[in-house]
Amino acid sequence: MEAFNSIANPLSSFFFICILLLLANAAFGKVHYHDFVIQATSVKRLCKTHNTITVNGQFPGPTLEVNNGDTLVVNVVNKARYNVTIHWHGVRQMRTAWADGPEFVTQCPIRPGKSYTYRFTIQGQEGTLWWHAHSSWLRATVYGALIIHPKEGESYPFAKPKRETPIMLGEWWDTNPIDVVRRASRTGAAPNVSDAYTINGQPGDLYKCSSKDTTIVHVDAGETNLLRVINAALNQQLFFTVANHKLTVVGADASYVKPFTTSVLMLGPGQTTDVLIIADQPPAKYYMAARAYASAQGAPFDNTTTTAILEYKAASCSFNCAKTNPVSPSLPAYNDTATATAFTTKFRSPRKVEVPTEIDENLFFTVGLGLNNCPRGARSRNCQGPNGTRFTASMNNVSFVLPSNYSLLQAHHQGIPGVFSTDFPAKPPVKFDYTGNVSRSLWQPIRGTKLYKLKYGARVQVVLQGTSIFTAENHPIHLHGYDFYIIAEGFGNFNQKRDTAKFNLVDPPLRNTASVPVKGWTVIRFVADNPGVWLMHCHLDVHIGWGLGMAFIVENGVSELESLEAPPVDLPVC
User: Fold this and answer.
1) Cα distance between residue 82 and residue 110, in whole Å
2) Domain named Plastocyanin-like: which ranges (predicted)?
3) String of DSSP letters for 245-281
4) Contact present, 153 and 68 (Cβ < 8 Å)
5) Longest dimension (CA), the chain
6) 11 pLDDT band (50/70/90 cuts)?
7) Range of 90's domain?
8) CA distances, 108 to each of 137, 321, 411, 573 (Å)
9) What phi and psi, each to the nearest 5 degrees, are found at residue 12?
10) Within this chain, do residues 164 and 146 fall inside the same structural domain, yes or no?
């Protein structure tokens, strides 16, 4: 008997440890390790081969799949000739701001030949996010999907789809995109528009030298699939549709939404939309297509159309499909603001949510373009904007300037003086007719590295007010480190007395990127519960380069769990 006990006890101990490990795994999730090698790779598009910056030689980069509660550890090795950082777009990064990624905001760049390991946990998010470079215009080709499944043993709030397919909408230049933005920085003019849009890296049938590589998404007749649509384009809002098929929207920016059905999506750069599509049409090939929503009157844009093919795998399709062209969809007009607005205003949370009602910080930020007069002594070739000016952009008349010797987070954490100031204005310095004819005296913003300080736990409302300085357009505004409730949007100038009646404080959608309507406004609310330095900017990269951004400092709370973690030992130095 004693011999049996001596065997049984180790066995029971072993099983007890196994059960503890399983429980721990369920509670804390898995840890996923990845290596990202940033490198130049030969990529051929539109008949021409380019030395394109990629991750692991893939374009688009690898899709990462995790469960809610899992941890990602991604070692990024920079073998390219440019500085690089990686941003995990939409990840809350609770207390891990050091892993957020925007260059000179939460870290110094990873220099050529150096590396940095991003470590963070997904907390309370499910759906589709993505990752991308956050340094110069590298995100034109350095991007990939980040798919967050429910926790092990949990399910979607809708019937499990037969298949799930990421649909990454991108933008392609038939040249080096870094050269495009550098030329624009020198001249002060707007950068050249892209030469193609892409779906999962391929332009599709409507472009030269492209049809043999067009992306094909296979479906079986009658099945329901989940399409995870991501706008990874650099500078363009996009309409997306599938010929003859309805799309049921079930999620956006890794939050579930009250399902609604539509024939067309509109996504600003940075936004994601999860849709269910039922293969309920006669078996055939159907085009998926995306093209520009171009809201800026008179501004040049890429007016091409990218396509992929939804192909039924039914036997009746095999013979017919090979012989016939895919069914073509109808897309909205490029400037169809009514369709864009009808889409964005349909979003609701699935149920009643806890929206902050008492507000501690009531902020009003103008967002828009500007023109700087040609600096004294500058050559005309450096002032090729309208009438010999240089393009700029600003929030509340401050054109955001990134530091270069320290990151903002490092300067904040270590108390390094002289890197930034905390006097970003809570409202515009001058009140004006924001969407009317704006006096030319207001077209030239000041430059500065100004931040706005928030106490931990502050309940924040921000009115994002578009302006018509130079030209009005739709701006996709992204806030790092946070999701926020979009409680209202409208056209014209926001009016506190009139427009508060439009606030949805019951079931507004939770997003990380808001499309501020052309000549209009959007109101967002969030609780400042994540300490760090968090960038808020227009996700049209041409605009962030011109200064359309700002950053919040969120102070530490009282306890350790309300405080920023210590910086990692391998944090890059400037």
Assistant:
1) 9
2) 38-152, 164-314, 423-556
3) --EEEEEETTEEEEEEEES-EEE-TT-EEEEEEE--S
4) no
5) 98
6) very low
7) 28-153
8) 16, 52, 11, 6
9) -65, -35
10) no
Assess contact for 130 and 89: CB atoms under 8 A. Answer: yes
CA dihedral sign of residues 230, 232, 237, 242: negative
Q: State phi, psi for 99 to the nearest 5 degrees.
A: -100, 5
* DSSP assignment of 492-513: SS--HHHHGGG---SSPPEESE
For residues 100 and 225, state if they share a domain. no
- Sign of the C-alpha dihedral computed for residues 391, 50, 538 and 250 taken in this order: positive
DSSP strand pairing (31-45 vs 71-78) = parallel
Domain match, 130 and 170 both: no
For the chain, the C-alpha Rg in angstroms (whole number) is 24
| pLDDT, tens only, 481-502 | 999 999 999 999 999 999 999 9
Determine the Cα–Cα distance for residues 276 and 272; give it in Å rounded to an integer: 14
Question: Rounded distance, CA 23 to CA 103, Å?
Answer: 38
Which of 86, 119, 153 is the last residue before a domain boundary?
A: 153
Report the 10 Å Cβ neighbour count for 229.
25
Give the model confidence (pLDDT) of 436-461 as tens digits: 999 999 999 999 999 999 999 999 99
Residue 567 lies in a domain: no
The pair phi, psi for residue 530, each rounded to 5°, is: -135, 100
Q: Please give the single-letter amino acid code of residue 437.
A: N
Pairing of strands 247-252, 272-278: antiparallel
Task: Look up the CATH number of the domain holding residue 119.
Answer: 2.60.40.420
| 3-state DSSP assignment of residue 414 | helix
In sequence order, the β-bridge partners of residue 454 are 554
**Which residue among 132, 153, 174 closes a domain?**
153
